[in-house]
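Example 802, ligand zinc ion.
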Amino acid sequence: MKIASVIVDVPSMAIDHVFDYRIPDRYKDSLEEGMRVIIPFGPRKVMGFVIEIKTNTEVKELKEIDEVLDYTPVLTQELLQLGTWIANRTLSFQITSLQVMLPQILKAKYKKELWLLAEEEELSETLQILFAGRVMVTFEEIEERNIPYIKIRTAIKDGLAEVRYVVKSKETRKKMTWAEPVDAFQLEEGFMETSNQAKKQKAIIGFFLENPEPILLKQLLTKLHTTRSTVQSLVSRGLIRLYEKEVYRDPYENRNFERTEPLPLTEEQAKAIKPIHQTMDHHEHEVFLLHGVTGSGKTEIYLQSIQNALDKGQEAIVLVPEISLTPQMVQRFKGRFGSDVAVMHSGLSAGEKFDEWRKVQRKEVRVVVGARSAIFAPFENLGIIIIDEEHENSYKQDDTPRYHARDIAIFRGEYHHCPVILGSATPTLESFARAKKGVYHLLTLSKRMNNQSMPEVEIVDMRDELHQGNRSMFSFPLQERIRERLERKEQIVLLLNRRGYSTFVICRDCGTTIQCPHCDISLTYHRKQERLKCHYCSYEIPMPQVCPECGSDSIRYFGTGTQKVEESLQQTFPEAGIIRMDVDTTRRKGSHEKLLNQFRERKADILLGTQMIAKGLDFSNVTLVGVLAADSMLHIPDFRSAEKTFQLLTQVSGRAGRHELPGEVVVQSYTPDHYSIELASQYQFEPFFQYEMKMRKRFKYPPYYFLALVTISHPNHAYAVQVTQKIVKSLHEMSMNRTQIMGPTPSPITRIKNRYRYQCMIKYKNEPNLYENMKKIIQQYEKEIQTKDLQISVDFQPTQMM
Ligand code: ADP
Ligand code: ZN
Ligand code: ZN
């Protein structure tokens, strides 16, 4: 007897283990590990993943697998192992960890269709009878007719037919109805059989005989002056098929990418690439940290390392932050590797994402460029994994399973014995510290190409501006420089960093912000209670009326929207053309790219935007970058705020003077002498690293300590507090001496969607049982979680402290 161990799609702690099912004879030879099945589970039928096939089991009364959904495994052995690893490391359900690796479409409800790819005569007799002149049959029909599974599988293996999925999605994207003939031969027959009285029907058939391509139903109706019901009658006769398709075009599809050739490397580049190639030649795993300023030629190193993998018959994954997946970036990979490249980003529809994924699965491409989830590309012969801008927050998934793409990359790199390259101009402290310790191999590119220098940065003290009577958002030096650029017809990028606004208070007279004495982070302003609270520990004070440093009453919370800044900017410079880019103006699909193109075509002088403009943009005519409030990032209640500020300022400075025209940067700040602002303006990464490491050590933060953030939420305020208190108590009892359990404290955003949120933070050096202990604690609340709407989430190594 053959038995399958299955992880079932029921996300619950009690069910988070494998269940055994008997494999019915019809699937006996074809079912493989990594395939999805439908199985009976209690009164329901659910989906599950087969993770093992074996011959015996302890279970007495075995149920039987109902249906097998796949003809080839959707998960490889490696990814099955990875699933278990993710589940253990992030305390998430096995099923969630497996599903996160697959395209959405394989999770959604869908209809399966079998499409004929060859001439009918090539099929086995059973299938010839099944298709009976049609090009497509639904699986419902296949089931009804009891067609043996193996017959279909053979036809698919021989390339005679393929499975297509039609998603019944709840997506709100705009869809249009298309019409197409089902089959040319039938159409001709249909034409003969249609009486001349049915003029309209005949006209439609005639039209399709001449134009067999799909056409928008709307167009067809207007073209032939006919009605939907006439078309419908042809549909019921099986001559025409209607289907819905999203109105969306693959942004890269119709573009011709100019082919590029590998550039002769500079001495620095050659030195950096050598050890990468060596590990590849020796088929070894190693993590490289490629630290190079923007424009130092990192991408060329990626490209040539990938080429090396391809030459060995291997594959490559490149992760870039979602926001950098601009055509500019994609072009560099498509330009070098052409149709060998699949691109995965969130702008694709579910169907298109699935298509890209399938190209990988079918080995039609060898390179994947994509955002975070592309790390799960089902390659089986990986030769290199690259993570560009490794410091980006978006590599951490902020929903379960809370994995970091870097950890997944290293898991896969070890599995495939291949190198992982982490690249950045401003690596995370964690990575740089590991590189310094020799855990990662540090590679440095210190020079920009053509030895261009980084643009000059001027820091403007906004307190002085206030004292000089300038109450506007634009300092005099910035105004002057903007005016110069407008006269010279050069362009300007203005960054208004909105994150963290209105959560902290600042004295506009002296720049003081109020910090927690224990945690070195800004206190969060809670408007309702008029109090300032630390959300790491439990420290809190009433909101002061005057500045504790200078006594000024200009102490208030911070915050201006981009729209207000735009108005004020337009008032100051009535002649300037302004493009505003923020979540509001980029909500519509493609608007992001459209606005950038307008700016590139010089249809505006100033691009004003939130952090989405900080990265990857490359405009030759931009000679001035202004940062309106460097402080807003500095005071988000997060121990990484200095690091984030340093990264952002470095990134945004890199936007100016990338070509012939020299660039200049103006940074406005109320705390101009803060080390992160000062050192970023001088491009001093190492000194920043050294200083920040000292702070981290003093306040017991990563990379010296590990963190876990436990968040508890519930509609009832008192209940949320009470559960958090109990959890803190249990953690105290279970933990090692040197571990600190902090809290309970309200989360920085204490109420979201009518749920109260409380948290506790664990700082630990060595806590071997933490995962298990945490699991035990959550198990104690299993009933409340299932029935009382309680939520407990644990984020190990959080990147987002909000
Ligand atoms: P980074 O990825 O570090 O920002 P890039 O790889 O984009 O840097 O390189 C910056 C510019 O220098 C690009 O226009 C690139 O084409 C060019 N470049 C890179 N390497 C070389 C080289 N070896 N010779 C000439 N130009 C190069
Ligand atoms: Zn003050
Ligand atoms: Zn504190």
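Summary: Residues 169-173 have pLDDT under 50 and may be disordered.
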